[in-house]
Amino acid sequence: MGEIIANNKNTNLRTEEMVVQMGPQHPSTHGVLRLEVTLDGEIVTDVKPHIGYLHRCFEKQCEAMSNYQQVIPYLDRLDYIAAISMEWSYVLAVEKLLKIQLPERVEYIRVIMAELQRIASHIIAIGTYGLDMGAFTPFLFLMRDREMILDIFERTCGARLLYNYFWIGGLSHDVPLDFIDRTRQFCNKFKKTIVEVNNLLSYNEIFIKRTANVGVLPADVAINFATSGPVLRGSGVNWDLRRDDPYSIYDKFNWEVQVGKGERGILGDCWDRYMVRCREMEQSVKIIEQALNQIPEGDVKSAIPKRIRPNVGKMYVRTEAPRGELGIYLLSDGSTSPYRVKARSSCFVNLSVLPEISKGAMFADLVAIIGSIDIVLGEIDR
Amino acid sequence: MVGEEILNILKEKFGKVIVNWKVKGVYNPYARIKPENIREVAFFLRENSHLQFDYLMCLSGVDLGKGMLGVVYHLNSISKKHRFTLKVDVTRENPNVPSVEMVWKTANWHEREVYDLFGINFLDHPDLRRILLPDDWDGYPLRKDYQVQEYYNGIKVPY
């Protein structure tokens, strides 16, 4: 180094690019992700994500199962923060292959559970994003409310994180008697929390300074990279599978798709992506409240088939998980176990856009960009 | 637009390239095309003003058995709100498919994953490396006849 400076005699100082390994053990990567960052001073010139540290051969294991039902616990472990949404895609795919008609009550409970799960997942996304940006209090407020959702789940199916709750053709348990009251209670409390979080974090000047105009993802790039969920909507693309490729009974409810508008900076920046999540939680509460009012009586296990053996066929089904489009491509060869299960993971695709949007950003902003994509490594590495 | 109309537009332009198809009575209508033509078909599907397939949902590899491997492209159009599926089949001896990374950037990682787990080569791919498994791993695990290696860097693999 000294030699280089001595040779240049202060006139045309030569600078060198430096490669920094960020991760795999790094608090801001939200798991075991390694980024090979090339830096020119403080400016990021290239990012190469290295994934696979959490690879558990999900797709190979599915082929080794002896029946279709056994796959569901493995799906929980894809995106372990939003396990219910993971189960739904797969269950839907098998039901479509078997042509099962579900009882009304099952559909309603599924929607309520999935929306509760969406809120729980966005709470983690928003809370930890605040932590990354140095705001500790909103995280605690949000986690306190997430506890209420987990209690509801625990009372329903006995598990707090990995549920195995959606079964092919039904549910593992009916909801407990006080479910509706407790969920209403949660909704009323959570509406106040959202206001609180908006005051504390969303419109906080320091937070806006850190996130607005950072990591801008234009809409055409977002579509070309096939990003989905809040990342796509944050760029102003009005696309939500719950409305645009409706499954289950989402068409019965009155709610709005939230898109980024570039309020505090350029359209598609980190703040927009963050804010889409905040506003989606309000919409989820809206859906849950409507569903709670309409939920019919019935037996949640009546449509569960005794023997699951679909005909030879293929099925690609996608649902709107909290982090985006989760697609399950299922091949059946007519036997009792799946021939091939492919999970199109939303985080995997969303992360692939990271090198594109972080070029030219400051190194400290890289943390803000990763946080705004909201990745879960369990789903990326499968 | 439904699957049949999409197929008709495709047939008009690429009649000789399409091997077989199924568009009626299926949830995911598809057309199977010759692997060497996949990129031009992909470009056409993206650029045609009636089709506008701007969004590649999923790209998956499949082991079809009998010495064949397949790649499946699930396409979606955000502006037109319709879907279509393309399929190509290749043999195990010659598993080469032109990359569609220049049509849809998202294919970059998907193709790396298929290469990693099935050993299908994507021609002209800018960065074809293993993505989930270590670089020095042997074999392609999602092939049905895959045998796990005995030792990996001195660590016993099957336990």
How would the blueprint of this fold be written?
The complex is a heterodimer of chains A (382) and B (159).
Chain A: H1 2-8, E1 18-22, E2 25-26, E3 31-32, E4 34-40, E5 43-50, H2 58-64, H3 72-76, H4 83-98, H5 104-132, H6 137-157, E6 166-167, E7 170-171, H7 179-202, H8 205-211, H9 219-224, H10 230-234, H11 241-244, H12 270-294, E8 313-321, E9 324-332, E10 340-344, H13 346-351, H14 354-358, H15 363-373, H16 377-381
Chain B: H1 3-14, E1 18-22, E2 30-33, H2 38-47, E3 55-65, E4 68-76, E5 83-91, E6 96-98, H3 107-118, E7 121-123, E8 151-152, E9 155-156
Parallel strand pairs in B: 2-5, 6-7
Antiparallel strand pairs in B: 1-2, 3-4, 4-5, 8-9
Describe the structure.
The complex is a heterodimer of chains A (382) and B (159). Helix content of chain A is 48%, strand content 13%. With 382 residues, chain A is α+β, with helices and mostly antiparallel strands. A 3-stranded antiparallel sheet of chain A has the order 1-4-5. In chain A, α4 runs antiparallel to α5, α5 (104-132) runs antiparallel to α12 and α5 (104-132) runs antiparallel to α15 (363-373). The radius of gyration of chain A is 22 Å and the shape is globular. With 159 residues, chain B is of the alpha/beta class. Chain B contains 3 helices and 9 strands, in the order αββαββββαβββ. The N and C termini of chain B lie far apart (52 Å). The relative contact order of chain B is 0.14. Chain A binds chain B through residues 51-52, 55, 57, 59-60, 96, 221, 223-227, 237, 239, 244-245, 314-318, 325, 327, 329, 331, 340, 342, 344, 348-349, 352, 356, 381-382, and chain B through 27-28, 54-58, 60, 62-63, 72, 74, 78, 81, 83, 85, 104-106, 108-110, 117, 130-134, 141-142.
